[in-house]
Design brief:
mainly alpha, 4 helices
């Protein structure tokens, strides 16, 4: 029997994967710990570094999904559910990255449209 999936937990894990904030934490309770300011005790990174890391993580998930689908098609021991999970992870990560990009572009356009 497949356990029920909590969409909030999945979204939090995807966000943690993209930002790298919750990589060493377990899934339970990682949403509150990943968002607390105490976890950022090191010097803050520039926003551009965070974006580059996020795009790198999305690219890594895309490569894993491609490898899983290729393994499924060639019959090299990849199960259907593993390929589907990999493609869904990649799809969610891409959609999240696209949403962040769209929000950043909208904010930029709003700032450019301001009159001083």
């Amino acid at each position: 029997m497949i356990p029920a999936l909590n969409p909030i937990t999945i979204a939090t894990q995807a966000l943690s994967t993209l930002t790298g904030a919750g990589a060493d934490k377990s899934a339970v309770g990682s949403s509150s710990a990943a968002l607390s300011p105490a976890t950022a005790s090191t010097s803050p990174s520039p926003f551009s570094d965070l974006l580059v890391d996020a795009v790198g993580q999305v690219n890594k998930l895309e490569e894993q999904a491609h490898a899983a689908v290729t393994g499924l098609m060639t019959g090299s021991g990849v199960d259907v559910h593993q390929a589907m999970i990999a493609t869904q992870k990649e799809s969610m990560a891409f959609e999240l990255a696209l949403a962040v990009r769209n929000k950043a572009v909208a904010a930029y356009q709003q700032v450019i449209g301001m009159q001083f």
